[in-house]
Write a structure and sequence with these properties.
By secondary structure, this protein is α/β, with parallel strands linked by helices. It has helices spanning about 15-25, 45-55, 70-80, 105-115, 135-140, 150-155, 180-185; strands at about 5-10, 30-35, 40-45, 60-65, 85-90, 100, 100-105, 120-125, 140-145, 175. The radius of gyration is 16 Å and the shape is globular.
Length: about 190
Amino acid sequence: MDNAIIGIMGKKGSGKSFFVKKAVPKIKRIIVLDPLYEYSGTICESWTDVIEYLKEFKENDFRAIYRPPDDEDVEGFLSIINTVNDYTLVAEEVDFFCSPNDIHPELLKLTKYGRHFKRSLLWLSRNPYEVNRFLTRQSDALITFRQTEPRDLDYFKRYNFNKNLEGLEEYEMAFSGSRQIITKIWGADEIK
């Protein structure tokens, strides 16, 4: 996949992880940062496991699920994946690794310079106020599922979504930004 940054937001249980899981089988080289143990596949429980896995599949397709045991391990993991080219990182609950006022330096590096190395990022969070503004600003597309918090709905008014966010049904999504990038990953049938 060419470089893309896509932010996916929605209340808990709104369908964001389910939506991303539909894309995972279509992406050839993928690493999932899975702090809440939501994904299945080849599980790496330390950044050294990630190194060994990537050495084995360096030139081929791979699907690794990384479940960080602690914050220190995440730093090693993010440093390692910033040495690999041509992959997609799915960062579940990205607000574990950044805040509105701070962003992990390696996540910032991936966001700023990933395009030079064919690194893509799909990041997920419950709402826009939990993540660093740099992530939303650099995203090629934003996807949101049902939002009901007035502050969140007000935030999204800055963007041109394809649907009225206040009218979204349960498990329904809306997007703003590059339709082409979204349909390349999920397919036109998913993006209505």
